[in-house]
Specification:
Length: 479
């Protein structure tokens, strides 16, 4: 069975026609791109199936895919931008499983091979992925396959992938593509992979733990500073309490001394006033010494507490400086030509680009989160209003000047309408911003996206002004 022939017969023709109209691209360009996209994705499915964990995830995703989309592609696109946004959102999930951080690189290769704009290639591959996943899911149901059966089936598709892949794209993907060969999955057992594959998985896990550990170090540095400040306050209280307690212990011996003086004064009434005077002077001296001792200790406690608080403040400042230093290191790699081009850009006050430039020029103080205040979309769609696209373009210019920076684009909506649809719309809008950035020369693997729907509102959704503030795109620096 050749799955690519089935995709070509059942999907490709209708998808070329519908997608070209939606993207505003020629049918020839879209058709050429799909000729490379479907074999590339099927090849990545076969590679994913070589890992037991990846195979399980792929099986679950394909089995749960909605294969009804295969039967009415024209109707799906004719149903409006919301349907297409949902389709692309599903495609993003599939690409994350199959390509991970290399998604941007694949999009760049598809765009270069087909002649499509980067944004169009990005949207098209997200449209195509769900159809291929649904085709695999339909095969799973028709043949009653389990995960191992799917792995063996995908192994048989490698030869079809290689023969169907356009030569220009195959060479662009490099020798690593389809490098394992069909035999890599033919011997899959139900209990997983062999030891060699486990070593590869272990190496990947180790790399992830190292990255996670680096993040914890930064978090712990800031946490330590906070604990020191809290500890200084506790220390001040403890030392002050110790002074009071010490004063109390002095009183323990002062009271008997005072009583002794009273006894002496009683006998002094019989022996003369001199004894009374002596007893009185002794008592007075003891009280004065006690007060002096207590005062000295309280003063010392205050000094110790002050020094501790000052030291804590210094440490907190050092920790903040370390965080700013880490951000500075991220921005340390500079493309001088691209940075020089920034001098010709006039950033609108309050725009995301203006916020980022203030962050850079101000010593990287703050959380590295910037809101696109001048960016709008057509109602209910992920199409960026052309009049506001310059804000994204200006941000692209900054990212090109600092090629070491990676970011996450987050999409948000207000709370009107269906919650699930809002999440899909916010994801589609974040993806649209990423596509625009890529079209301006920012590598796709530097930009992550996430749609949150109506979560995390900034203002009251009960007012029109509040809802307008909540419909937003934010960009966060990945530190």
């Amino acid at each position: 069975m050749n799955l690519l022939d089935m995709v070509k017969d059942q999907v490709a023709g209708s998808l070329v026609s519908s997608a070209s109209k939606f993207l505003g691209e020629s049918e020839s360009g879209v058709g050429k791109a799909l000729d490379g996209i479907f074999p590339a994705l099927l090849g990545k499915m076969a590679d994913t199936a070589d890992d037991s964990n990846g195979l399980t995830k792929l099986f679950d995703m394909a089995k749960g895919a909605d294969d009804s989309i295969l039967d009415d592609i024209g109707g799906l696109f004719g149903g409006g931008a919301g349907n297409v946004a949902k389709l692309m959102n599903n495609g993003s999930g599939a690409l994350n499983l199959l390509l991970g951080n290399s998604t941007g690189g694949m999009i760049d290769k598809i765009a270069g091979f087909s002649g499509l704009k980067g944004s169009a290639a990005s949207s098209l591959i997200k449209m195509a992925a769900p159809f291929l996943m649904s085709m695999v899911g339909r095969h799973i149901k028709n043949k009653a396959l389990d995960a191992v059966g799917l792995g063996k089936f995908l192994g048989t598709q490698r030869q079809h992938v290689k023969s169907s892949m356009p030569s220009g794209l195959l060479s662009a993907l490099g020798a690593g593509f389809l490098g394992k060969g069909a035999s890599a999955v033919s011997g899959l057992a139900s209990d997983g992979l062999d030891a060699g594959k486990k070593v590869v998985g272990g190496a990947t896990d180790a790399a992830g733990k190292v990255v996670g550990g680096a993040g914890k170090v930064v978090g712990n540095a800031a946490g330590a500073a906070g604990k020191v400040v809290g500890g200084a306050a506790d220390l001040a209280g403890d030392v002050g309490g110790a002074a009071v307690k010490t004063g109390g212990s002095i009183m323990k011996w002062l009271i008997p001394l005072f009583l002794l003086a009273l006894v002496g004064s009683f006998f002094g009434l019989r022996t003369g006033c001199g004894a009374v005077d002596n007893a009185t002077n002794m008592t007075k001296g003891a009280i004065e010494k006690t007060a002096d001792a207590t005062g000295d200790m309280a003063k010392g406690a205050a000094n110790v507490a002050g020094d501790a608080v000052k030291g804590a403040a210094d440490m907190a400042g050092d920790a903040a400086g370390a965080v700013a230093g880490a951000a500075g290191a991220i921005f340390g790699k500079i493309d001088e030509a691209a940075k020089a081009a920034l001098d010709g850009i006039k950033f609108t006050a309050g725009s995301a680009g203006s916020q980022m430039m203030d962050f850079i020029n101000g010593g990287f103080k703050g959380d590295g989160r910037f809101t696109f205040n001048n960016l709008t979309f057509a109602t209910g769609s992920a199409n960026i209003d052309a009049a506001t696209a310059a804000e994204v373009d200006n941000m692209a210019a900054i990212l090109k000047a600092y090629p070491g920076v990676t970011v996450t684009v987050e999409g948000y909506t207000d709370n009107t309408g269906d919650a699930a649809a809002n999440v899909q719309l916010s994801q589609a809008r974040a993806n649209a911003v990423k596509a625009r950035l890529m079209g301006k020369g920012v590598a796709g693997d530097r930009v992550m996206t996430k749609g949150f729907g109506s979560a995390n509102p900034k203002a009251d959704n009960g007012t029109a002004e509040g809802r307008a503030q909540n419909r937003r795109i934010e960009m966060i620096i990945n530190k």
